Amino acid sequence: MTAREWPNILITGTPGTGKTTHAALLVEALQQAPETSAAPWQHLNVGDFVKEKGCHQGWNDEWQSWDVDEDKLLDELELVQGQGAKVLDWHTCDIFPERWIDLVVVLRCDHAKLWERLEKRGYKLNKIEENNEAEIMEVVLADARESYAEEVVVELRSESPEEMEENVGRILQWVHGWRANNADDSDDEA
């Protein structure tokens, strides 16, 4: 078990599956719930963090994204993730050390709905096609299952506001369970 008082949660999935919205709603719910409101919950949108901290090697016009310097990103994130109570959201998960992450939530979406969402964002056709193919082939889910212990990876559908609300509720329940299990472990060690 971890020595952190609060867990770190990674919300991941193909672009357009609702990671940022889920993370923001989850942090809001965690800050309002009496059992978890004492923690310094923070939503870390890793894409924004990359820009803010300069963890990139420049802009890639072809893919409309930053070329991430993974070593610098991990160095910067090492400084903030240690105390826990972080909800990270990013389109990939396999670069984060297992010891940082207590729950990996992989959001999934029907590929036709995903295509529509990415079109609305103004993505170029090559980026829409690549992301749609990644969703169909379950690339992010496979990466999560290869990178983390089976018991910390959960796959959730993200196609409607109702599913989003249910997902946030499930994760909130998981945090309560995590806290109870860690409190029991620390009591046993005393």
Describe this structure in words.
This protein has 190 residues and is α/β, with parallel strands linked by helices. It has one domain: Rossmann fold (3-Layer(aba) Sandwich), CATH 3.40.50. It has 7 helices and 7 strands. It has a 5-stranded parallel sheet, with helices on both faces. A hairpin with a 4-residue loop joins strand 3 and strand 4. It starts with 7 loop residues before the first strand and ends with a helix.
Keywords for this structure?
49% helix, Rossmann fold, 190 residues, five-stranded parallel beta sheet
- The average pLDDT score comes to 93
Total DSSP helices? 7
What's the CATH first level? Answer: Alpha Beta
CATH topology: Rossmann fold
CATH H-level superfamily title: P-loop containing nucleotide triphosphate hydrolases
Strand order of the largest sheet: 2-5-1-6-7
Distance between the amino and carboxyl termini: 15 Å
- Which secondary-structure class do the elements indicate? alpha/beta
- Can you tell me the residue ranges where pLDDT is under 50 for at least 5 consecutive residues? 186-190
* Global Rg: 17 Å
**Gross CATH architecture:** 3-Layer(aba) Sandwich
Q: Total strand count, please?
A: 7
Q: What count of structural domains?
A: 1
Q: What is the string of helix and strand elements?
A: EHEHEEHEEHHHEH
Instruction: Please indicate the percent range of residues in DSSP E strands (runs of 2 or more).
Output: 15-25%
Main beta sheet strand tally, sense and closure? 5 strands, parallel
- DSSP helix fraction: 40-55%
Shape designation = globular
GO cellular component, one term: nucleus
GO biological process, one term: ribosomal small subunit biogenesis
EC number: 2.7.4.3
Pfam families: AAA_18
